[in-house]
Every structure is written in structure tokens, then in C-alpha cells.
Amino acid sequence: MLTFIRQHGIPLWVYKASLLLAAAIWGMGTVVIKSTVDEFPPSWLVGVRFTGAGIILGIVCLGKLRDRLSAEGPQHLRDGAILGALLFLSYWTNSTGLTDTTASNSSFLTTLYVVIIPFLGWFIIRKKPTRFNIAAALACVGGVACVAYTGAGAFSLRFGDVVTLFSALFLSLHVLYTAKFAPGRSMTVLTVIQFIVAGLLGFAVGAITEPTPNFANLSPDTWISLVYLTVLASCVALGLQNAAVARVDPAQAALFLSTECVFGVIFSILLLGEVLTPSLFAGFALIFAGIVISEYLPLRAEKKRAQRAAEEKAPASCEASAPIRDLEEADAFMR
Fold first, then answer.
1. Contacts with 56 (C-beta within 8 Å, 6 or more apart), sequence order
2. What DSSP line would sit under 64-104, residue for residue?
3. Contact between residue 285 and residue 143 where contact means Cβ atoms under 8 Å apart
4. What is the pTM of this model?
5. CA distance 229 to 129
6. What's residue 140's pLDDT?
7. Burial zone of 108 (CB within 10 Å; 0-12 exposed, 13-18 middle, 19+ buried)
8. What are phi and psi for residue 293, nearest 5 degrees?
């Protein structure tokens, strides 16, 4: 890593800052969706966002896309279609949830996917949850309870909160199946295919269940929002993240990326005027603690074990970190 940085003259802090910038772009994206879904229906929003992003990435990577599809087209199309369906479901439920919940709630509830992943992974990739995963899950359950607390001993989750929890579930499945399909596949090609599939599904569901937006009469703010989500949140942030995760320690990268939910709350307060109650603040704090426990601590523990194994000249022990690294890269590439 240090050799690469010296050769290219790019200090490590630049890549860390790129991860923070990507997290901030995605955090702002939640606020942008919240301010847009009242005028632009959720399914159509997903359709425009991912079809546009897929076309942009397809043009940029046209040569590679053509070569890999000609060599391994059926496999990439099959896997990309599955990932595209999961991507659509995760962002469709997220956007739909924002019609009936705050951007702050959505930011933290969606990020629960990092806690859900280890438990779903038990069934999909046959890797048991660790003590960190269990501790993180307990912290997040307490956090969701605080978010649902309405005062006077009553608890209630809005319709939008429940739908957003489904978004976290679908996003967890998306990350896990990305990790499962990635070996032997071009992630660039898979990304283009799944963006297009997710976008087309958005248009199809929108045409059946929602009124067609009048594109000619959209306000300038809505157009700006669509461009932001398509270009910045789906293309630029993805590029920043991919450039950085290959050069920043995975544990640190996970911590930087987990700040997405924090940025979401900050922007929702500053731009939407949302107010944090004491119970919401406690809930967000518990959820963020769960995210740190789930994302950062296991990677740090694996790094220490790998260092000890290297010192003891036991390469076999180092291989244990591979599944965690695969999930981290899948999470990083397909946010």
C-alpha cells in the first residue's frame, strides 16, 4: 500500500477523505429522496436513477462491457439480473418508506443492513455470526425500540419505518449475493447490468402502480435531485469508494462508511428542519454503536489474528479473514 502511494504521490488521507465524501453524498441522498418523493413517485425515481446510472457507466466502460459479455454473457446476465432485482427492492422500499418517515429515521434504519448481514450469511454463505454480531444486534434492537418510543410507555413504528426495515433486509441480501457472485465475474459488468435491471423494474412497477410523472412540468429542484441521485449518488460516490477501499485498511474503511447515517441525520436537521427527540437520539446512538461493533471490531480482531499468525509463520490462520474481506468489498462496491 505504501509503495503504491509513494509511486503515485497520493497520500493515504486523501483516500480516507474520499470514503467520508462518499458517505456524505449517500447521507445527503436520503435527504434528496425525502424532498423529492412527494412530487416524483418512488418507483419512477428508482427507474430514472438506475437506468441513467447504468447508461452512464455502460458508456464509460463500453469496451470492457462488450468484451466480457461476448465471453461470459449468460453468466453475467443471470447474476446481474438477480442483483438488479434485489437492488430495485432495496431502493424501492427505501424510497417508499421516505413518504411516511423522516430522513433521520430512514438513514439509521436502512443502515441496519450491516447488522442483518451476518445472520443472513449464516444461511447463504454458511458462516456463523460472531459474538460481535450478536452484541451489535442487541444494541440495534434497543435502538429501534427507542426510535419506536412515542412517550408514556407506548411504542409505535410508522408504516414508513416498517417499509424501511424491509429495505435494510433487501440491501443485506444484495450485499451477500454480490459477495457470492463476485468471484470469476467482472464487477463493473455486473454493476452496469444490475443498474439497468433495477431501473427497468422501477419503470415497470411505476407504470402499473403509480401515476406517470409529467417530465415537462417538473420543477428545477426535482431535476436537480434526479441528476444528483443518478450522477453523484450512483456514479461518483461509487467511484470514490472503489478507489479508496483498495488502499484503506478494511476496518477503517468500514468505520468511515458507517458515517453515512450520521451525515443523513445532520443534513436532515440542517436542510429539512427535522428535530431529534431524546428517545430518537438514544436510538440513533445505539444503532450507530451496533454498526461500529458489527463493522469495525470484527475486522480489527481479524487483523490482529492475521498479524499474530504472520509472526508465528502460520499462513493457514490468515485465510480466516477472507470471508470478512469479501463481504467488506461487496458492501463497499455495491452500496
1. 230, 231, 235
2. HHHHHHHHHHHHHHHHHHHHHHHHHHHHHHHHHHTTSS-HH
3. yes
4. 0.83
5. 34
6. 86
7. buried
8. -60, -40
Q: Quick one: how far is CA 189 from the chain centroid? A: 19
**Interatomic CA distance for residues 324 and 313, integer angstroms:** 21
Contact 35, 273 (CB under 8 A): no
Listed in order, strand segments (DSSP E) in 112-200 are 149-151, 154-155
For residue 5, what pLDDT band results from cuts at 50, 70 and 90? very low
Q: Which of 98, 84, 97 has the alpha carbon at shortest distance from 49?
A: 84
- Backbone Cα Rg of the chain: 20
In this structure, what C-alpha cell is assigned to residue 41? Answer: 413517485
What is the C-alpha separation between 144 and 136, in angstroms, rounded?
12
CB atoms within 10 A of CB 161: 19
What is the pLDDT averaged over residues 304-313?
A: 76
- Of the given ranges (17-21, 87-91, 179-183, 218-222), which has the lowest mean pLDDT? 179-183
**Rounded to the nearest 10 degrees, what angle do helices 159-181 and 103-110 cross at?**
30
Residue by residue, DSSP assigns 97-163 as HTTSS-HHHHHHHHTTHHHHHHHHHHHHT-----HHHHHHHHHHHHHHHHHHEEETTEE---HHHHH
Across the chain, how many H-helices and E-strands are there?
Answer: 16, 2
Around 258, how many Cα atoms within 13 Å sit in the side-chain half-sphere? 24
CA distance 276 to 284: 10
pLDDT digits (tens, 9 = 90+) for 137-176: 888 888 888 887 766 555 667 889 999 999 999 998 988 8
Question: Could you give phi then psi for residue 149, rounded to 5 degrees?
Answer: -70, 125
Three-state DSSP at 248 gives coil
Q: State the Cα–Cα distance between residues 26 and 331, nearest whole angstrom.
A: 14
Closest CA relative to residue 243, chosen from 57, 54, 15: 15
The one-letter amino acid code at 94 reads N
Task: Report the C-alpha gap between 36 and 213 in whole angstroms.
Answer: 12
CA distance 28 to 318: 38
